[in-house]
Amino acid sequence: MKCYLIASNYGTPDFLDYVFARAPDYGERIHYDDYEDEWVPGRDMKYEHGGPLSYGATVKGGRFTDKTRAEFQKIWCVSRPKAERTFDVIKPFGESLKAIPLFSERLKDAIEAVDPALFEFVRMERTWDDVHKTPIAGGPFYLANLLARRDCWDQDRTRIVPQKRGDGSYFNTISGSGRAVLRSRVKVALIWRDTLTKTVVCTDAFKGMVEAVGCKGWWFREIAVTDDR
Predict the structure, then answer these.
(1) Parallel, antiparallel or unpaired: strands 200-203 and 170-174
(2) Cβ atoms of 179 and 154 closer than 8 Å
(3) Which of 12, 136, 210, 224 is geometrically suited to a Cys-Cys bond with 127, CB 3.0 to 4.6 A?
(4) Which residues contact 14 (CB under 8 A, 6 or more apart)?
(5) Which residues contact 175 (CB under 8 A, 6 or more apart)?
(6) Per-residue pLDDT tens for 156-180?
(7) What pTM was computed for the model?
(8) 61 φ, ψ to 5°?
(9) How confident is the model over 29-59, as pLDDT tens digits?
């Protein structure tokens, strides 16, 4: 078994990012510090166990609240692709619950056929290619809320460092290039978010599944697996 971190294929036509916007116009993107009376995704979205910076959402995951799903339907996902082409993934995962990829319907269906409990999918009707002035090719697209959680790191081979936010709260990051997961904790997994660092990790089974669909916008970086059986 092999494990991977998921990053972006930056610099290639297959990579695509998006922003949340008030209208089908990149200039109408919604910023974190926008008006207090406006619903801002990164600031105001909620999961069953709390907001994107909360301990509960980090450790337990959870689906979006009804209000969050309803508010998502009111806003746009706007991108600036280099070429007019179809996409299966838009945006990678990040070490923040605020970074939510968009999946095409065929990628969503392939994942749900294997394990319908891995993700919550929210269909986004309003997607827009602001370069070619058309809906993003390859849709419909779905916000992919990763539900799976695991405590996976081999802490003898992975340096985890606490960091302090401006509000006084703490979060954990990985320092240095060394990263290793414990085989005993991930051997039956496909993809998950680590409960300590919020890092998204997947196995070769998940990598093979999404690449078979044609998921070219991601780059898979292999990491070590400690055989602790």
Answers:
(1) unpaired
(2) no
(3) 136
(4) 87, 216, 217
(5) 159, 160, 161
(6) 898 888 787 777 677 788 887 789 9
(7) 0.92
(8) 70, -130
(9) 998 877 778 999 989 999 999 999 888 998 9
